[in-house]
Amino acid sequence: MATERLTDIGPPDFRKFLSPMITKNYGKWKYHEILKPGVMVHVSETGDKLFTVRAGSPRLLGIKRIRKYAELADKYCDGYLRFTSRHNVEFLLTDQSKIDPLIKDLADLGHPVGGIGPAISSIVHTQGWVHCHSAATDASGVVKAVMDDLHEYFDGTKEIPGKLRIALACCLNMCGAVHCSDIAILGVHRRPPRVQGGLNKLCEIPNVIASCPTAAIRPVTVDGNPSVEIEEENCMFCANCFSVCPALPIADALNDGVSIWVGGKVSNARVEPRFSKLAIPFLPNNPPRWPEVVDAVRNIVDVWATHARKFERMGEFIERIGWPRFFKLTGIEFQKEHIDDFKHAGLTYKRSAQIRL
Amino acid sequence: MAESGGNGNGTPMLDELEKGPWPSFVTQIKETAEFKEEAEQLLHLLERSYHEKMGHWKHGGIVGVLGYGGGVIGRYNDLQDEFPKIAHFHTLRVNMPSGWFYTSDALRTICDIWERHGSGLTNMHGSTGDIILLGTTTDELEPTFKELTEHGFDLGGSGSDVRTPSACVGPARCEWACYDTLDLCNELTHHFQDELHRPAFPYKFKFKCSGCPNDCVAAIARADMSIIGTWRDDIQIDHDEVRAYATAGMDIQKDVCANCPTKCMDWDGKQLTIDNSNCVKCMHCINAMPKALQPGKDRGATILLGSKAPIVQGAQLSSVIIPFIKLEPPYQEIKDLAERIWEFWGEHGKNRERVGELMQRVGLGNFLEAIEIEPTPEMIAHPRENPYVFYEEYYEEGDEEEEAESTV
User: Fold this and answer.
1) ipTM surpassing 0.95, yes or no?
2) Is the pLDDT of residue B403 over 70?
């Protein structure tokens, strides 16, 4: 009866999930073309054509919806589909005539088709209040509100100069790796952790002290028990101490919120990969639709879409016009918080007299 | 019970997020709540978070499946009396197939298992790439795992171990794949199963495989070892197709040549010429004219190390460690390199110190020595600007040239 307990078998071999057509043309693709928003064709040396239909998704999916995807894949592409690194679902068709009926079925299900080429693709994001202990904001809710506002840039209704990639992470751990995005939405804490009683029973005090990048945590004795205290003026709210010690909660409804970062990219096209830079230090958590965040992102997208040249990503655009003009065009107030004061901060100062006055 | 959670019976705030054109996660939770009480309670717990502007999930606990140290994220809510069905609500990370390819049957298999053993909620996919099975009880972990493995699936990484490697779509559907990203990812994942399931490192270690410098899996930003496809011969040109782009209205001088970072291209109105010796493989021209230009034929990858998000010592991008390497199965050089890195990191890394931070702390020069790689100018943006050189040896008066004394 009892079957042997299997371990360390690893993931299934991807080759099992490739269609016969993909297997036949593996490594033989010659070029691709974008046929219309969210639809592209890859043409092989053999002359075979593979059509991809990319649809947006909320990332958080119930099994009922995944079964729907499976049904659509069976109906239109012999059951072959994949997901992208930005949470989109892609149907892989061999029959061009099935593209439009598939798009209609996806629309009926509430999934827009788009996100290919010069477009805003889905927002890479994290768990937020749905399932994370360290979230400074929700993830899915902010993403939903922002994409409701920007969907015309996803489905191609509105044209833009180039690619624009948005990401959201609900705290500085950055499970969403937002630090190299054209626009990044980052949950931030702004109140130092509160030291709870009995910390020494839950946490290794030397680990807690070592976890602080600014050495703001000191050992103390409280009521005869070892504990820690936090030099609040040296805390920059990274929450690394909370990651190693649950007795140092940092989330705080009054002070948590969202910051906005711009100009990062990972691709090597034209200019090298680069980090996103701070655009707006703080916006409040205002559920359910985070209007301040939606407006801020929309404003930055509009400024870029209006002024950027063809192909120019956000960071290239800002580099060309300069940061002072970026702040002027967006109307974002420049504040002390925009100036780096962590390691190597000096490298970010303007060290020349080349200024657009 | 759920009725007492949230703000009364309804979820007015979350209901707002069912409006609008983008597909709604709230609809997904509600759809699942029709047959899963856990999803119903999650909905009300989340509604409460929306009112209070605070999460209600506690710090993870140590839970998992027998013999593994990773793959399960322990999760408990802090209102257990009100939301008992999700008192334990642990995540299973299930290792996805390379490139996130599935058949409809494979997806149904996952759905069926998750209907039997968990909340019915998922992420397709998590940020590192795993299939995220979102929420089940401690008792269900082992039975879920058993069914997953019986159907050919296994858990991914979590904690201080090899995290689930990921790969772009690669040669399965991309003409720009300079090596077989899917095969390398699959091979590394299977080869390092022990390192993936049993955390023994100072902190996490991620592999990401991108087939070209467009880097669709963000390897340079998100992987301790970033394996990015490239080539070292000439860009392949189909001159007729170049002219076809021009005829179709593309301004090749402005849109392509002027955007080249090294200005190694020229268009005279009839002929495109490329000084390939000065090409840095940025991909712009190829992206702009995919029918006319292709990466060269002598393909391989650049290996870069050390990227990470800010925690603890600041965010980093990966930096070049091997400018060019051919990648063929069984990829022994990559496996050996990873093991040399882990050996040095295991000995010298501090708790929660990523490889990129270790490289900074000990210096890239010393790190290269430790992992037995010769320094080359491709590894730096420019040579040092400061004169504070840590020479390790000096001569004493009367020394023979070859008998320099160590200062250590």
Assistant:
1) yes
2) no
